[in-house]
Amino acid sequence: MVSAMAKRFKVLTAIGPDRPGLVKEISAAIHQAGANLEDSRMAVLGGEFAMLVLLSGTAAELSAAEAGGRAALTPLGVECHFRATEVPEAKAGTLAYELRVTGFDQPGIVEAVTTVVAAMGVNVASLETSVIHQPLTGTPAFLLEAVLSVPREVPLATLRRELGRVAEDQNLDLVLDARA
Q1: Are 22 and 65 in the same domain?
Q2: What CATH number has the domain bearing residue 30?
Q3: Which of 60, 85, 110 represents a domain boundary (last residue)?
């Protein structure tokens, strides 16, 4: 187990052609190096597999994980980038809220929502979007799911009202709830 003083962090970003076994390859390289995979986001976008992974360990473990990851993924056509980072501590005075936006797919939804959020000083901790074609009709439906870090001084009623304006302007359903 890594002591708190020796614990370091790296972020791996990788993208390449999708194929079975990519997650196994990188997780094995991390494990064999003695490092820990702490947090990750992985998805297939088009024909490409993309991953964003937070690793922790000693400097030696992280170096070994990087070398092992590159050795496993580069021959498979996956581009890897490792970057040292720090894990931020939870900010005092913020609350986590989940935002869900749905509606007919149209350009500009993400920009409109994030414009409101940024203008109010709210941080986007995570955001995922997708277009799903409805059964029977094939109508493209847009889905945005985000976790927002809302500072205590931001009036929730104002945030809801401003997001509600976006929803009304673009004919969207919008739900903003405290994260459980």
Answers
A1: yes
A2: 3.30.70.260
A3: 85
For the chain, what is the largest distance between any 2 Cα atoms, rounded to a whole number of angstroms?
57
112 plus 74 within the same structural domain: no
Residue 2 belongs to a domain: no
- pLDDT tens-digit map of 132-168: 888 888 889 999 999 999 999 999 999 999 999 999 9
Is residue 176 a contact partner of residue 159, using CB atoms and an 8 Å limit? Answer: yes
Residue 172 in this model has a pLDDT that exceeds 70 = yes
Structure tokens at 163: 């997001």
pLDDT tens digits, 98-136: 999 999 999 999 999 999 999 999 999 999 999 988 888
Residue 126 shares a structural domain with residue 152: yes
Q: Which domain holds residue 163?
A: 94-178
If phi > 0 it is left, if psi is from -120 to 50 it is alpha, else beta; for residue 170 that is alpha
Model confidence over 35-48: pLDDT tens digits? 999 999 999 999 99
| Dist CA 178 CA 180 (whole Å) | 6
What is the rounded CA–CA span in Å between residue 21 and residue 78? 12
